[in-house]
Recover the amino acids of this structure.
């Protein structure tokens, strides 16, 4: 029989905003207020810390002009090509090294130690080999992207559950079937992680090359804004660039299902 | 029964050395093929100088271009950035761990900063600090900061519950608990963060030196490339790669030694 005397207590009204969100808003507002104060105080050069209004105006100006999108497309094309070339090459080398213990011992240490060297120093060589056009930027992006993808793929290959490999072999799978049906699906997370890292370094390599020697692309626009001392425009471009790169990184991670990995 | 640990003696055998020999042999063969292609005019020496010419240009680059002086300058910039990011990074990490709300609010921002192309801010830093060593140091500092903060947070948060409980059973104060339990337990993870931070700092220091044509080894490559001294440019790049690799190995060794000493 139903207990009619029991009264369900009224749920407490949910707070409009969680303390974390509130703190985030407070931090952002404080930073903006301090920035604006610095801008009008005259303690620093006004051009170094332009007012938020000027940055906002430059942001609107940037996003409403076709020139920016043209340069964005140039950079995106270069980064995409670099990611495709460096990623594919890195994947092939990584799988080869991961599958063969001897080759791994012979060559992987070179990749491991060359991986974190500053790639921008190779730019003079890239200019000599591929010219001053987009080729040298793509080449630098490819070189930057290759190492993290290759190292992640090699590590991922070694982490594959041996049972899965035995299952594939017991079904007499061909090498291509083994790669596409066993290795690549089992290595999905390390590969996506490598691609994520590769995307970041390819972007940095390409953009830095554009700031050094180019007449188009986002890197060129940034260094052009520096040359003409157009600080609000430079801030606006950096803000958009940061949002785009962080967003692209998050999208690659989400597409690869990295956000679904359970962490202890 | 003797409890002294004896390190196993590694005996040299051809089977063990074969992979390393194969790696070195492949590299040497590659350079010999390049040399042959250039000497037979199948590869233009105006694009790729012969490896023999690059090796011969090493002493000239080292003596005439004051490589040692430049190396000290780059190392100084890198270490200054390293000290700054260790002090600031660990302090921020500890602060965020102590104030949980701050950690919840800002940890994702720090992680996002780690994936952002911070080095692209170098024109901005040039406007703020001028074209001098501080621009380079600050770039290295900002680029290396996120891993130190994140690893400090990870290290302190990951302290084993049993250690914390031991501290509580001894009625340690909050400060004692931190200095005697949490911080020592987190040190190995913090060292990983400092190692990553130092690597990022070195990459950015050399990169920005090259881009703004100021400072040590990065500037050397830029100057030689602008003079179209091909063999010298290649030799300088080889030298910087060698220095970077040695730096990573040294930092890695230091980390292993420090974590073993814990």
């Amino acid at each position: 029989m139903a207990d009619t005397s029991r009264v369900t207590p009224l749920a407490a009204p949910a707070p409009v905003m969680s303390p974390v969100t509130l703190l985030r808003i407070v931090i952002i507002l404080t930073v903006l207020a301090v920035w604006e104060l610095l801008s009008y105080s005259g303690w620093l050069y006004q051009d170094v810390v332009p007012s938020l209004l000027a940055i906002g105006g430059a942001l609107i100006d940037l996003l409403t002009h076709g020139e920016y999108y043209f340069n964005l497309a140039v950079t995106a094309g270069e980064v995409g090509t670099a990611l495709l070339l460096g990623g594919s090459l890195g994947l092939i080398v990584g799988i080869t090294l991961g599958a063969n213990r001897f080759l791994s011992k012979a060559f992987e240490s070179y990749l491991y130690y060359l991986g974190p060297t500053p790639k921008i120093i190779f730019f003079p060589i890239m200019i000599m080999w591929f010219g001053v056009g987009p080729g040298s930027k793509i080449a630098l992006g490819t070189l930057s992207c290759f190492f993290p993808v290759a190292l992640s793929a090699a590590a991922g290959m070694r982490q594959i559950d041996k049972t899965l490999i035995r299952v594939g072999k017991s079904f007499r799978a061909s090498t291509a079937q083994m790669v596409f049906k066993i290795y690549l699906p089992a290595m999905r997370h390390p590969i996506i992680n490598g691609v994520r890292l590769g995307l970041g370094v390819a972007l940095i390599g390409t953009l830095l090359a554009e700031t050094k020697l180019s007449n188009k692309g986002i890197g060129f626009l940034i260094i052009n804004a520096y040359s003409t001392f157009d600080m609000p425009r430079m801030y606006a471009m950096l803000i958009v660039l940061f949002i785009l790169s962080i967003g692209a990184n998050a999208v690659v991670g989400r597409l690869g299902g990295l956000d679904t990995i359970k962490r202890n | 029964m003797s409890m002294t640990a004896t390190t196993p003696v590694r005996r040299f055998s051809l089977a063990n050395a074969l992979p390393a020999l194969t790696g070195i042999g492949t590299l040497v063969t590659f350079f010999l093929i390049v040399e042959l292609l250039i000497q037979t005019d199948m590869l233009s020496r105006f694009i790729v100088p012969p490896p023999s010419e690059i090796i011969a240009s090493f002493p000239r680059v080292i003596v005439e271009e004051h490589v040692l002086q430049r190396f000290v300058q780059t190392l100084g910039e890198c270490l200054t950035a390293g000290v700054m990011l260790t002090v600031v990074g660990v302090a921020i990490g500890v602060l965020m761990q102590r104030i949980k709300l701050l950690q919840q609010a800002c940890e994702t921002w720090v992680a996002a900063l780690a994936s952002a192309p911070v080095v692209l801010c170098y024109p901005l830093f040039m406007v703020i600090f001028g074209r001098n060593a501080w621009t380079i140091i600050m770039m290295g500092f900002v680029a290396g900061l996120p891993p130190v903060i994140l690893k400090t947070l990870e290290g302190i948060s990951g302290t084993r519950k049993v250690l914390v409980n031991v501290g509580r059973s001894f009625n340690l104060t909050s400060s004692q608990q931190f200095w005697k339990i949490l911080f020592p337990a987190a040190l190995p993870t913090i060292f990983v963060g400092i190692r990553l931070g130092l690597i990022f700092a070195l990459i950015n220091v050399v990169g920005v030196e090259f881009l703004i044509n100021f400072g040590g080894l990065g500037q050397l490559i830029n100057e030689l490339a602008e003079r179209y001294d091909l063999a010298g440019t290649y030799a300088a790049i080889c030298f910087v790669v060698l220095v970077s690799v040695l730096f990573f190995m040294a930092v890695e060794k230091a980390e292993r030694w420090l974590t073993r000493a814990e």
User: Anything to note?
Assistant: The first helix of chain A runs from residue 19 to 41. The CA atoms of residues 84 and 141 of chain A lie 10 Å apart. Chain A touches chain B through 51 residues (CB under 8 Å).
